[in-house]
């Protein structure tokens, strides 16, 4: 499947600081205004076994589960959204 969208953000903070900030996904709705809530089955930072549900402000919800996890490098979630598969 071709990649349709890739986003990159560069910030001037140490890698560990950025990782820990992003790994607290339940806090994302404070700064990601398209999200109403993020639920993890095991609260806390994401980990290799993370799964949960994203609640979007438009009323849609989408489950996700961790597919790939490389600490301080990247993680990849997989889940459906309408007729799409989100990676």
Explain this structure:
This protein is mainly beta. The protein has a domain at 33-86. 10% of the residues lie in helices and 38% in strands. It is built from 1 helix and 5 strands, in the order H-E-E-E-E-E. A 5-stranded antiparallel sheet has the order 1-2-3-4-5, with no helix packed on it. A hairpin with a 2-residue loop joins strand 4 (74-81) and strand 5. The longest helix is centred in the N-terminal third of the chain and has 9 residues, at 15-23. It is globular and about 35 Å long. 7% of the residues are buried. The mean pLDDT is 89.
Provide key terms for this protein.
single chain; 87 residues; mainly beta; five-stranded antiparallel beta sheet; 10% helix; 38% strand; globular
In short:
The protein has 1 helix and 5 strands, in the order αβββββ. It has a domain at 33-86. It has a 5-stranded antiparallel sheet, with no helix packed on it.
Strand order of the largest sheet: 1-2-3-4-5
% residues in beta strands: 35-45%
Q: What oligomeric assembly is this protein in?
A: single chain
Tell me roughly what share of residues is in helical segments: 10-25%
What is the terminal-to-terminal distance?
Answer: 10 Å
Treating each run of at least 4 consecutive H or I residues as one helix, how many helices?
A: 1
Output mean pLDDT.
89
Biggest sheet features? 5 strands, antiparallel
